[in-house]
Specification:
single chain; alpha/beta; Rossmann fold; eight-stranded mixed beta sheet; 21% strand; binds S-adenosylmethionine; Methyltransf_12; methyltransferase; SAM-dependent_MTases_sf; METTL2/6/8-like; EC 2.1.1.-
Length: 387
């Protein structure tokens, strides 16, 4: 997935040490002419353009704090904690790999607008739209057939962003059922399996790409599981008419949707919500993380990638949507028809948390500034009302 999948800061690259420039010698009589005859040192370079985004664009900075205070505790300390390093006036952007809550400025917002207009004016042909929208799972099968080396990221952010995952994996938590949808090659499922100490945890990892499920099922961590197995991987389409193998209505405590909702076309959202609502127990939650509008992955799309508003096709044929906060709130709080699992004819999720995660990732060696934007939320199936 290339940069689309950069959900962790890029690996720290050491900057080569630069020799300090010698002050150039002038004869005593010429010293008063210094400013006329010496070309001043070039100011510190703004870096390279990052995937088409001009390097000269500057992020919005917060006012400088004089001490490494409680307000900005991670500024000069490592290891990096997500969500706690703010870029302030006077900071060297290239001193760290990532900065949190970095807002883009008006110039960048205008650039996003221009890019979107350009993309819309150069959209995918009708013939190709049909090619990419018809059987989208076959493009994911191809993806998982081609990219074996890129799998199994170390997702340190999982528990930090969703602390409940730390709780349910504790030894004495008790019986709990998790369903991960769009599990791909297991980038979330395997780290969870590795950290799990709870003998009563069951994790169902589903994906509609049979190839992805083959990848999960062929891993030693999967095949070596003792009976009863914690992790079960199955082919399942979240927007289909059936429930996943082994799961019944109101049987799931937590549903993980990590970069899968963006792979659906907008006309699949309602059925996906219906299935998730049916599967969850009352009080059960969806843990959601996905692409946000204006993310570099959206901005960098060139000609022939736009399928529909905020919906694109990547070079490998896989589709991706970019959400904004209000739209997600509307989707996840809308009422869902045809949900009969607990005798309610219509129902809707409760939006517990919904936030935009803006981060500037830095490639320190190439001096690239990458403005990333992700959406994160928790959506709850309401507790059954006693009436
Ligand atoms: C961007 S990948 C994310 C994979 C994984 N969650 C991760 O974060 O590494 C999106 C995944 O969603 C799967 N997917 C897309 N549409 C789906 C659907 N309708 N039902 C189930 N899985 C789907 C794709 O096959 C792909 O594995």
């Amino acid at each position: 997935m290339g940069i689309d999948d950069v959900t962790e800061p890029a690996v720290d690259a050491q900057l080569p040490t630069r020799n300090k420039q010698q002050r150039q010698q002038l004869t005593k009589g010429m010293e008063h002419m210094r400013s006329y005859v010496i070309i001043p040192e070039t100011p510190q370079s703004a870096g390279e353009d990052a995937y088409g985004v001009p390097a000269t664009y500057e992020p919005v900075r917060k006012p400088a704090t004089t001490i490494v205070s409680d307000e900005n505790p991670q500024k000069r300390s490592d290891p990096f904690q997500f969500g706690t390093r703010y870029l302030e006036e006077g900071d060297d952007i290239f001193a760290h790999n990532a900065w949190d809550h970095v807002e883009v400025d008006a110039q960048y917002s205008e650039f996003i607008e221009q890019q979107t207009t350009f993309q819309r004016e150069n959209q995918v042909s009708d013939f190709d739209k049909q090619r990419f929208n018809d059987k989208p799972e076959k493009w994911w099968d191809k993806f998982y057939g081609n990219n074996q080396a890129n799998f199994f990221k170390d997702r340190k952010w999982l528990v930090q962003e969703f602390p409940i995952l730390g709780e349910v994996t504790k030894e004495d938590y008790g019986a709990v059922t998790l369903l991960e949808v769009g599990a791909g090659a297991g980038n979330t499922a395997f780290p969870l399996l590795a950290m799990n100490r709870n003998p009563e945890l069951r994790l169902h990892a589903c994906d509609y790409s049979a190839k992805a499920i083959d990848v999960i099922r062929s891993q030693p961590a999967y095949t070596a599981q003792e009976s009863p197995a914690v992790l079960q991987a199955d082919v399942w389409d979240i927007a289909g008419q059936d429930l996943p193998p082994g799961l019944t209505p109101s049987s799931v405590d937590l549903v993980l949707l990590i970069f899968i909702f963006s792979a659906l076309s907008p006309d699949q959202w309602t059925q996906a919500l219906r299935n998730i609502f049916t599967l969850l127990k009352s009080g059960g939650e969806v843990l959601f993380r996905d692409y946000g509008r204006g993310d570099l992955a959206q901005v960098r799309f060139k000609k022939g990638r736009y399928l529909d508003e905020n919906f694109y096709v990547r070079g490998d044929g896989t589709r991706v949507y970019f959400f904004d906060e209000e739209e997600l709130r509307r989707i996840w709080s809308s009422s869902i028809d045809g949900v009969t699992a607990d005798s309610r004819q219509t129902a809707s999720f409760e939006v517990r948390d919904l936030a935009v995660d803006r981060r500037m990732l830095v490639n320190r060696q190439r001096k690239l500034k990458m403005y990333r934007c992700w959406m994160q939320g928790r959506f709850m199936k309401p507790l059954r009302s006693e009436t």
